[in-house]
Amino acid sequence: MKRIAILGSTGSIGTQTLEVVRENGDIEVLGLAAGSNITLLEEQIRQFHPRLAAVWSEEKAIELRTRIADTDTKVVSGMDGLIEVSILKDTEILVTAIVGMIGIRPTIEAIKAGKDIALANKETLVTAGHIIMPLAAEKNVSILPVDSEHSAIFQSLQGNEHKAIHKILLTASGGPFRGRTEEELLDIKVEDALKHPNWSMGQKITIDSSTMVNKGLEVIEAKWLFQVDVDQVQVIVQPQSIIHSMVEYVDGAIMAELGTPDMKLPIQYALYYPHRRYLPGERLDFYSLGRLEFEKPDMRTFYGLALAYEAGRAGGTLPTVFNAANELAVSQFLNRQIKYLEIMEIIEDCMQAHKNIENPTLQQILDTEAATYERINSRR
Ligand code: NAD
Ligand code: MG
């Protein structure tokens, strides 16, 4: 039996991880953590019998404790609770499916405790990759990518030497607004931005996909996971999301992973790496597919992607500013407090105002996050 814990078990990746667990039948779930959906968390506790469950607010934790008083699951709360789930004795893998840079501290603590990380939580690597990757190497811990593109790259790297990598070809669907001009983005409503053409995901990443900021985060994520320069990562729009990403080697050979869009594949691959398991679901049929299309991304209209390259190249605290500004701007957009294009304006403004700190400590990253929020909140 493999033993795991999941941060963000009630979300899109979290629930699909539990489906993979259910379908395989040989993984034990020792810990679950969620934000506020205690109804779903209660169902998960009754089905998977974890030793420990964490909820963000103590108020909800109290309610959950009453609801599951007949079970053996202990309920904890807050950051301490998240960390307790992350370092649970006996777990081999922590699945980080929480959204946002709140995942940094639990991820670091899990690595220190020797847990392998199945990483979906890209914001953590974007902001603290320079701390996480060396720490993982020191602790002999694997960081297994769950993000579909990074899983595809990871799969395309198997059996090849790192020094033979020439380029990473990171594919993007282009999102629901591909081909639109800036003018055509002026009046985008929350409902429009939440319609992704190929993937069904959490709200934050769905908005990020529409602005291409998600692809920008993924460029920086790839830099850390695969130890390449951001300028070795080329974004290619592949609207059908069939090619999940590729690696170009020094001899010109290109390796890719293709398939129907289904997050269960990268989740399962991370959980069982290096083994492959049967996965039910729709298979790619090239006869009915007919053709694949490719485009260059429009980095002038979707300049959040260009800003990500700038942040990734500079390193230091600039990627934290890029990420934190986006996190708050997206939540303000979802709350209908700002207009769609203001998301990118806010990121640019915060980045321009920032004085970069090289090789920041965890505290400096968290301070930069707070300062970025403060700047945005004092905008009006
Ligand atoms: P989601 O919004 O569906 O789920 C987020 C989860 O995190 C929920 O369980 C929520 O309860 C939990 N959470 C949020 N704040 C919390 C807090 N303070 N304490 C404890 N738990 C908290 O998000 P998602 O789409 O599943 O994405 C999760 C992560 O995976 C993100 O970093 C995203 O970029 C990445 N990712 C997602 C997909 C996808 O298909 N959904 C694909 C690639 C990468
Ligand atoms: Mg992705």
TrEMBL record:
Q: Where does Mn(2+) bind?
A: 147, 149, 218
Q: Which InterPro entries match?
A: DXP_reductoisomerase, DXP_reductoisomerase_C, DXP_reductoisomerase_N, DXPR_C, DXPR_C_sf, NAD(P)-bd_dom_sf
The UniProt entry, under Pfam families, shows: DXP_redisom_C (PF08436), DXP_reductoisom (PF02670), DXPR_C (PF13288)
Q: Name all 1-deoxy-D-xylulose 5-phosphate reductoisomerase C-terminal domain ranges.
A: 143-226
Q: Which co-factor is required?
A: Mg(2+); Mn(2+)
Domain 1-deoxy-D-xylulose 5-phosphate reductoisomerase N-terminal residues, every copy: 4-129
Question: Which keywords are on file for this protein?
Answer: Isomerase, Isoprene biosynthesis, Magnesium, Manganese, Metal-binding, NADP, Oxidoreductase
What GO molecular function annotations does the UniProt record carry, in alphabetical order? 1-deoxy-D-xylulose-5-phosphate reductoisomerase activity; isomerase activity; manganese ion binding; NADPH binding
* Residues the entry annotates as binding NADPH: 10-13, 35, 37, 121, 123, 202
Sites where the protein binds 1-deoxy-D-xylulose 5-phosphate: 122, 148-149, 173, 196, 209, 214-215, 218
Keyword Thylakoid belongs to the record:
no
Matching HAMAP family: DXP_reductoisom (MF_00183)
Give the UniProt family note.
Belongs to the DXR family.
Q: Which PANTHER family match?
A: 1-DEOXY-D-XYLULOSE 5-PHOSPHATE REDUCTOISOMERASE, 1-DEOXY-D-XYLULOSE 5-PHOSPHATE REDUCTOISOMERASE, CHLOROPLASTIC
Q: What name appears for this protein in its UniProt entry?
A: 1-deoxy-D-xylulose 5-phosphate reductoisomerase
Give the organism, scientific name: Clostridium scindens (strain JCM 10418 / VPI 12708)
Taxonomy of origin reads: Bacteria, Bacillati, Bacillota, Clostridia, Lachnospirales
